[in-house]
Amino acid sequence: MGGVRYSGLRPASRAASARARASSKKSGTRCEVALARALRRLGLAPEADVASLPGRPDLAFSERRLAVFCDGDFWHGRHLARRLKRLAAGHNAGYWVEKIRANVARDRRHRRRLEAAGWTVLRFWETDILRDPAPAATEVARAVRGRNRRAPPQRVRSCARKASTVSSSTRLASFRREK
Questions:
Q1: What is the pLDDT of residues 83-122, one digit of tens each?
Q2: Where exactly are the structural domains of the chain?
Q3: What would be the CATH architecture of the domain defined by 25-176?
Q4: DSSP 3-state of 90
Q5: Which of 21, 77, 134, 143 would disulfide-bridge 104, Cβ 3.0–4.6 Å?
Q6: CA dist 40 to 35, 123, 176, Å?
C-alpha cells in the first residue's frame, strides 16, 4: 500500500490485496507504451519510469523539466464522484473509497512537489491514450518543443480542465492537466 495507513480499514484479505497489487502493472503499461511510441514517431525520445522524481513519472524529458503521467482511470479516480459512489456500494467499501481518495491526494502532492522544483506536469487518462495516443503525444510535443532550455518553466496550456477538489466529478476531456 505504499506506506499509507487507513485507520480501521483493511483489505478483504492479504491474498486479495497481494493479487490486486500484482495485477496492477507499475510501469510499461499499454497506455505508456502507446504514448511513448507516438512520441517516438514525432521524433521525441522520452525517459521512461523515472524513479528519481516525485510520483515516478511514466515519461519525462529531464532537460525540458517535463513530467508526463499516464493515469489509470480506476486507480487515479477518473469520474471520481461516480467512482466513489459505486465503490461505496461494493464489497469492503470503506477501504476502497479511502484508497482511491488517497491516490488522488497523492497525485496532487507529487504534482505540487514537481512544480515547486520547476517542472511542468502533464497528466493523461489511460482510456484516452488507448483510444488515440496522437492528441496526447501532440500536447507533449508542444510542451517539449515550445520551451527554451534556459527560460524559466512555463505552464503548458491545455484544452481541458481538471477538478480542483476530490469530490468533484467534472474532470473533462482527454487531457488531464492540473492547476
A1: 878 877 777 777 877 888 898 999 999 999 999 999 999 9
A2: 25-176
A3: 3-Layer(aba) Sandwich (3.40)
A4: coil
A5: 77
A6: 9, 18, 21
